[in-house]
């Protein structure tokens, strides 16, 4: 599945965003088949998907992906704090892009 993440990143770097998103969604689907839903790899999938959706201007969908990533990261034992902070920062960016400055402050205050 790490290979699919790498393929998705390559598509993204080539500007082939639809294929990148499809590949990420396939990786997430495969993770669902073999891993516990609270496995940290799911957080990674949702984080990467959120990043791509935000780049495409699909902020509401990106926010959903980031929130899923956070829900897993905050419950998974041993999640490095920098990973949680990174997703919180992305949530902040999406709220700013959506013109929601009051919401943007909430992740920072967590």
Can you put this structure into words, describing what you see?
The chain has 110 residues and is mostly helical. 81% of the residues lie in helices and 0% in strands. It has 6 helices and no strands. The protein has helices at residues 2-13, 17-34, 40-55, 59-75, 81-97, 101-109. The chain is globular and about 35 Å long. The model has no long low-confidence stretch (mean pLDDT 89).
Topology, please?
Layout: H1 2-13, H2 17-34, H3 40-55, H4 59-75, H5 81-97, H6 101-109
Features:
mainly alpha; single chain; 110 residues; globular
Rg calc: 14 Å
Helix content, binned percent: over 70%
Our count of helices gives 6
**Main sheet specs:** none
State the order of secondary-structure elements, H for helix, E for strand: HHHHHH
The oligomerization state is single chain
Beta-strand share of residues? under 5%
Give the overall shape.
globular
Structural class: mainly alpha
Number of strands: 0
**Termini gap:** 31 Å
Mean pLDDT figure = 89
Pick out the low-confidence regions.
none
What is shown here, in short?
With 110 residues, this protein is mostly helical. The protein is built from six helices and no strands.
